[in-house]
Design goal:
With 264 residues, this protein is mainly α. It contains twelve helices and no strands. The longest helix has 37 residues, at 5-41. The chain crosses the membrane at residues 23-50, 62-84, 105-129, 141-167, 187-208, 220-246.
Length: 264
């Protein structure tokens, strides 16, 4: 029997609190990398060298988005390996060796990983077409609703792709097949646990935001409060997904062992 919702949250919080300090170097590096990409992408000096035009702006925006996506995938999978190590063996990988490994994993599987953002890309395309006036309001709303439904199904069926790649040494679309295999037959279980995980983050953010705004009155200190929240919130995504995946995997191993004993 798969652990209850309450047990799942207990495991998530225990794993989160016990592994957070080990994740701090990855959070710092993630912030440094993304900050560097941001300033490189929007550097005034860079635009002065080039002819300022729509094509160049679009080109650098695309390059920036690709690098942002690559770095996010790489650092997320690096954190997933740390979380899995804490959950299973309590032996943590070295930071730079871990990042090096996830760098090559991301490089080899980048186009596969990019499929995960397909619903977001379709949303942007529909928004752009609608903004140009090519679609009626009814058609626009219908397409957005369709994308939302497809996106939800897409997200939950492929929720373990980024866990499978670094932990199972899967390649390409094999990680999607592994994720489908893990979710198949227990979609409701995966859906409820991840839904409550995101609801917890949303409710926490709502109250934290209200308190932070009351304390800072919307000054620059408000941004500092939000930055602190983001630092503590980011690990919840990889922790939740990794704990759920390893729990389901453990249940599968127990079932296989039981079946072997019955057949023996």
């Amino acid at each position: 029997m798969v652990t209850s919702l309450q047990s799942f949250f207990v495991k998530v919080f225990k794993t989160y609190t016990s592994s957070f300090l080990k994740l701090v170097p990855y959070l710092v590096l993630l912030f440094v990398f993304l900050t560097f990409v941001f300033f490189a992408q929007y550097s005034v000096a860079l635009y002065l060298v080039l002819v300022p035009g729509t094509f160049f702006r679009l080109f650098f925006n695309i390059i920036g988005a690709v690098v942002y996506t690559f770095v996010t995938f790489m650092m997320t999978m690096a954190m997933i390996k740390v979380i899995a190590s804490k959950y299973t063996t309590n032996v943590f990988p070295k930071v730079f060796k871990n990042i090096k490994e996830t760098f090559f994993i991301t490089l080899k599987n980048f186009f596969t990983l990019a499929l995960l953002i397909l619903p977001a890309l379709l949303t942007y395309i529909v928004y752009f077409i609608g903004k140009m006036g090519y679609l009626s309001p009814y058609a626009l709303i219908s397409l957005f609703l369709l994308i939302i439904v497809v996106g939800i199904l897409f997200f939950f069926w492929f929720s373990f792709v980024m866990v499978v790649l670094p932990l199972e040494n899967s390649k390409g679309l094999g990680s999607f097949a592994k994720s489908i295999q893990m979710v198949k037959g227990r979609f409701g279980l995966v859906f409820t646990r991840l839904l409550f995980l995101f609801l917890f983050l949303f409710v926490t953010f709502f109250f934290y935001n209200e308190v932070a705004f009351m304390i800072t009155q919307g000054t620059l200190f408000y941004l500092l409060f939000m930055f602190i929240f983001v630092i503590f919130a980011i690990p919840f995504y990889p922790v939740g997904f990794t704990v759920l995946y390893l729990s389901l995997q453990n249940e599968d191993m127990k079932k296989e062992a039981l079946e072997e004993n019955l057949l023996a």
